[in-house]
Amino acid sequence: MAGTGEAHLLVDAEGTVLSVRHLQVEYRTPGGVVHAVSDVSFDVRPGETLGLVGESGCGKSTTGKAVLRLEKLAGGQVVYRGQDLASAKRGTLRPLRRKLQMIFQDPVSSLNPRRSVRELVVEGLTIAGRPAAERREAADRVLADVGLDPERFGPLRPRQLSGGQAQRVAIARALAIRPDLIVCDEPVSALDVSVQAQIVNLLHDLKDEHALTLVFISHDLSVVRSVCDRVMVMYLGRICEVGDVDSVFAAPAHPYTRALLDSVPRRRAAGGFPGPALEGDIPSPLDPPSGCRFRTRCPLATERCAVEVPEVRAVGDGHFAACHHADAPADLGRVPVSV
């Protein structure tokens, strides 16, 4: 994301928790190189929740893992409070991991089935170097924080928990070592709708109580609308649009964002954003389209889109889009609808 598009990213270093610049993640396979994340740059501000959204395969989960060094970077910088994680050696990275945690999509598979709930939480405290005398008390306290009675749930194994209870344990485990930033990778997608609401409300409360900063990865736009302060829309490894949630949802500037929003039943029933619906399949990351990667499915694509990668540029106050025709949606009769 070079050129004018970086203007919205260049804030005072003291004003960010995480600064990502020109992030690249690639996988070498027998069929060629998979371009999973390409030239992605963004900042995360203290106390905010930044949402990463897009279709399956857009690179959002890979981005989340890469910023925590759970994926190997092919290029770019990941700076956490002034320290570059991308180039950090193991000895430097280990203490930083206590401040950077991740909550995964499938809570049961992320928990050791041989350990009890209390042991799982205590394990994180042990790794963090907390004194032995404090560990059980601290574990029980954080279990209570996520709404689980430590006397009832502490002795249980993960297989004895419901999906929602297991996700609460995963959250407790992440919180136990007092992190600064948590990447939440589709934390509610595997849960029933009613349980999703409980976990979303819990994250809201814990964020304020523990002064957390969150990166929230999801394909569910309704959840993103209720949880996030800002949203970053990704397609085939690149950023399409970034902005405050209200601005992006009310007046999306990128055709892909409009198509995603039109897929929400309530918006579609209300008329959505006039124009052709999103058609076709997402191209292979082994051979992404030249120029704008969305052009093969875009109703506004022109010859320019095939040869020139669009820069991320301002389309409003705190609102940015990577589209040669970012002004065109204004002429298509936007119909803001709550999601």
TrEMBL record:
The alphabetical list of record keywords is: ATP-binding, Nucleotide-binding, Transport
Sorted alphabetically, which SMART domains does this protein's record hold?
AAA (SM00382)
Hey, which family's this protein in?
A: Belongs to the ABC transporter superfamily.
User: A Pfam family name for this chain?
Assistant: oligo_HPY
**Its Gene Ontology biological processes?**
peptide transport; transmembrane transport
One molecular function GO term is: ATP binding
Q: What is the lineage of its organism?
A: Bacteria, Bacillati, Actinomycetota, Actinomycetes, Geodermatophilales
Source organism per UniProt = Trujillonella endophytica
Keyword Nucleotide-binding recorded: yes
Q: Where is the ABC transporter domain?
A: 20-261
Q: PANTHER family in the record, alphabetically? A: D,D-DIPEPTIDE TRANSPORT ATP-BINDING PROTEIN DDPF-RELATED, TRANSPORT ATP-BINDING PROTEIN
- Where on the tree of life does the source sit, at the highest rank? Bacteria
Which CDD domains does the UniProt record give?
Answer: ABC_NikE_OppD_transporters
Question: What name does this protein carry?
Answer: Peptide/nickel transport system ATP-binding protein
